[in-house]
Every structure is written in structure tokens, then in C-alpha cells.
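Lab notes, practical 5.
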Amino acid sequence: MVHLQAGAFAYHIMKELHCYVVALGLCITSGISPALAANGGDYRLPNTIAGVVRNKLTQVELAAPQTVCLGLQIRDAERLRERVLRGEVLTPTQLIAEHMPSLAEWQDVANWAESQGLTILQHDPSHMTVFAKGSVSQIQNALNVQFAKVAGVDGNEYTSAVTAAALPANISSKVVSVRGLVPRVKAMSVNPKSIT
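Output from the prediction step:
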């Protein structure tokens, strides 16, 4: 059982694992395989993006800094899913030994990102995420993704990916998600009294 005194490392692992298990659960209930949901299929902008303002970014926009998070594949995900569905509680030691990505897998993805001109921002002790930073242009080239200027439902304009990321086969087999390509736009709240 995980206790609070296990420290920040255990908290970080549990937070990352919770995100993975929620995503895994959504994929299971929707009938989509986790790999397909993360690395393929149709790409749609989130409902917080109203639409594309223009497809071509300026040189200044292409040079702007961009951070992405490459989420790594859990080991033996099917067994972990079964354990979670049974209500089994795993210790951080069990998670690291049996399900977390290995240091070698994390290092492979980090080395690839660096070979694409990106900077690794920090070492993730759980090995679940590679945090990388570069210019929009570098991210666009590394992830084979198209960026554009989009309008958010909040009325502001943002730089956002408008196509899905595509990674080389030796990297995509280790990566289940790429976060940070689409801006987090706060959806506008509607006052029900103002609707007539």
C-alpha cells in the first residue's frame, strides 16, 4: 500500500500512473486500443479551439519556444489493467519493477529528442515522461506535425498543432502520447440566465 510518507517521488509516480490508467480506461470503454488513440487515427482539434485563423506561421511564431511531453508506454499494460480492475493496490517498488518504463527506454526517447535539436528539461524519476523544449519550428520538424494560428473559444489566438504527431517506428513503439502541441484554452462559461 502507498502511504503519504513515501514522499514526492511516490506522489509523482502515482499522479503519472493515474493519468495513464484514466487514459487506458477511456480507451478500454470506448473500444479503442491505447496505441491507436495516442499514435494514430483521425485528428480533431479540441472543442476549445474555434478554428484555424491561418495556416502559415510567421518567422517570429516559428521561433517561439514550445515545450512538449512525450508519455512513455507502461510495461505489461494488460497485466496492470487487470490488476487495477481487480482493485489491487501496488507499492511504488512494485510499479517501478513491473510496470514503469525502464531507464533505457526513457533514455532512448530522450536521446532521439536531443538528436532532433530539442533540449531535455528534466529527468523524470518515474521514466514515464520525456520533457523536451525547442522552437515551434524544431518541434514541427521533430514530430512531423503542422502548426497553425488558431482561434480559441475565449477569443484569443494561439499557435497550435493542427495535425497529429508522427514519430519514427523505433520511438513510436515507446511513446503513447504527445502533450503540449495544442494550447490549453479555458472554455468560456455560459450564464444560463442569459440564454433566451
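Observations recorded by the TA: The longest strand covers residues 65-72. Residues 4-183 form one domain.
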